[in-house]
Every structure is written in C-alpha cells, then in structure tokens.
Amino acid sequence: MPKRSGLRVTMDAIAREAGVARTTVSFVLNGQAKLRGISDETAGRIVEIANRLNYVPNEMARILTRRHSRIIGVLFGHLMHDWADHVVDGLRTVLDDEGYVALITKHRFDPQWEAREIQSLLERRVEAIICVPLIGGRPNYERVARAEVPLVFLNDTLEEMPETSFVAWDTAAAARAAVRRLIEIGRQRIGFIGRRYPRPLVLAPHTAYRETLEAAGLEINSHWEAWLDPRESTRGALKAMFGRKTRRRPDSLFFSLDVLALDALAEMEMAGLRVPDDVALITLGDQPPCGHPCVGLSAIPVPSEEIGRETARVALQLIRRPESGPIHRLISCEEIRNRRTTDGVLAPRAIAQRNTT
Q: What does the alpha-carbon distance between residue 298 and residue 283 come to, in Å, rounded to a whole number?
C-alpha cells in the first residue's frame, strides 16, 4: 500500500510526473479525454499515476468552478426507528437518477443545533434543503430563503410559513380511516392519545378523530383524550382512563403515533387489561414492532418511501424552476393493517345488535 505523505495530491503533481499540462490532466480525470483529442496512451498514463498517488478530487473546488454542487441537504429531527431510513430510500430513487446526492444530518429538535447544521449545509453549496420543520426554527428557514436556496418541509409544515413548500402524509385522512375501523367492529366509546407538538399535521389526527365520532353520532369525552409531552409515558393517561375509580371507560383507543400505542399496549397488559376484549387499539405509523406476532398492533402505515420520492421531485422542481413554488403535497395512505388489537373483534353491544337483525 502506498505511503501517505499527509499532503493532498494535486493535478499539478500528476501533470509534472506525466510530463503534460495541468489542463490535460483535468480533461482526462473529468472524462473528457476523447472529446479533447487526448490519446489513449496519454490518458492511460495519467489515470495510472493518479491511482498510484491516491489522488482524490477536490469536490469543493469543482463546485466553485461549475457553480452546481448537485447536493441536497436533508435535515431530520432524529434518526431513530426506521422512518428516516425509508424516506432516504425514497429520496435516493429519484436523486440517483438525476445525479444528485443527499447530505443527511439532524437538528435534534433544537433551533440552535439546527442553525449550525443549516449554516454547514449552505457552506457546502447545497442546491436545496429538505427539513423536518421545527417549532422555533423560522429564523433558520428565513436564513435559507435569503441565501436563495429552495426549502422543502418534510412530512409537516408550519402555519406561519405558508410560502414554504412541503410534502407530508395526509394524517387527517388516515385518522378518519382508523377511527372508522373501530366503529366498524362495534366500539362505541373511543378514546385518543397523541403527542403534544404544535405542528399542523401532528394535530390533524385529533381533529379528524373528533369529526369522525361526531359524524357517527358517538360520544366525544374529553376524559378519554390525552396529550403527552415528548418522552412522556402513557401510564398516567391510561390510569386516568382505566383506573379502578373510573366508572365509564373507553372500549377502544386511537393513537396518533405508533410509539405511544406500543408503550400503551405493554402498560395495559401489565395492568391486567385484556386487549382487544376490554379495549381495542389502532394507531398511525406501523413501525416494524407493530407487526411482530407477539405484538399484533393494528395500524395504518406511513408512506415513508413515497414521501421521500415526492419530496425529492419537489426539491428538484424548485431548483430548476424556483418560480413554481410554493408546492404543497399531501400523500394519501389509508391502508389498515388489521391485527390482533382490532381484527374481527366485535364489542358485546355490536354482537347483540347483529343478532337481532
């Protein structure tokens, strides 16, 4: 293995050893040898020297020369679970074909951290930024706008920034489908548990839940609803809904986030509540644990890859035609994966009603 000197090998060094001009080396290493009339022998010698010296192109210099980095920055809130991985798969199917790469980072739901990451992306001359929107992040996004770099919010938006493009899951439509499923299996007292975060598409499932109950003529009971802070367990909410002193309990629960549903399922079964006999459960999201045979949590899956693909398409459109924005896209997915927490389970009242018809 060749020893490394600690210094970056330059085209000038390759040119000196090959006995050619620097421009000749540049043409060869950029794939223009035939176009420029450079002989195969000279091109082969230059490539051999570059490989032997472990030449690595200076990508930033190339960016400055051509003024197009073909890089798109992607800012997630975090990289836990598998949602980000599937979104990146979707992004790559579009960006790879167009010769773009995704530079991935995260803001940890911290505006100051996000400001540093955005500055780093802008310094690398990204052509667009895709970002999970952060409450309190508006100054950072205005910084992107001043730099005249297209910005696309990923899987949500901010009410105070309607001028910003976004691609997101239609969580309201998914919520309506989930609540209707509970009604179809005869559940009459349907509760709600969601994560407290004031973004429109985080809040939308709760509104859709209430609208669906109202349309079905079912009770809306605020005691059967709970908003949890990040990292807060469902234990307290479940105790309030199903405690010994609670006379009227929900017979089913709709969750706006599968992490909450998985936590609640474990808490319920430890507390002796029978799922789905005592309470049926359905959620949005459908991470892999939901489908495990020992879990069997009914869910509507987030269309992660399609969100990634469409977000990449929107970003590329804004790069090529900035005047076409803002672009607002909602991706529909209402496919219910019925598992043991709902599948085929009829509440006693529904069974009685069916037997009298």
A: 7
Residues paired with 183 in a beta bridge? none
Q: What's the pTM value of the predicted model, to 2 decimals?
A: 0.80
User: What are 32's two structure tokens?
Assistant: 């223009």
**Residue 205 burial (C-beta neighbours within 10 Å; 0-12, 13-18, 19+):** buried
How far apart are the C-alpha atoms of 217 and 224, rounded to whole Å?
16
Closest among 58, 21, 85 to 287, alpha carbons compared: 85
Nearest 5°: phi and psi at 128?
Answer: -160, 160
Closest alpha carbon to 329 in 200, 152, 172, 178: 152
- Torsion angle defined by CA atoms of residues 168, 173, 175 and 181, in that order, rounded to the nearest 10 degrees: -140
Encode the chain (357 residues) as per-residue pLDDT tens digits.
344 444 578 889 999 999 999 999 888 887 788 888 999 999 999 999 988 888 876 655 555 455 577 899 999 999 988 899 999 999 999 999 998 999 999 999 999 999 999 999 998 889 999 999 999 999 999 999 999 999 999 999 999 999 999 999 999 999 999 999 999 999 999 999 999 999 999 999 999 999 999 999 999 999 999 999 988 999 999 999 998 877 899 999 999 999 999 999 999 989 899 999 999 999 999 999 999 999 999 999 999 999 999 999 999 999 999 999 899 999 999 999 999 999 855 555 444 444 444
> Which residue ranges form the domains of the chain, and what is each CATH number?
11-57 (1.10.260.40), 68-169+304-331 (3.40.50.2300), 171-302+336-355 (3.40.50.2300)
> Measured between alpha carbons, how far is 23 from 29 in angstroms, rounded to an integer?
10
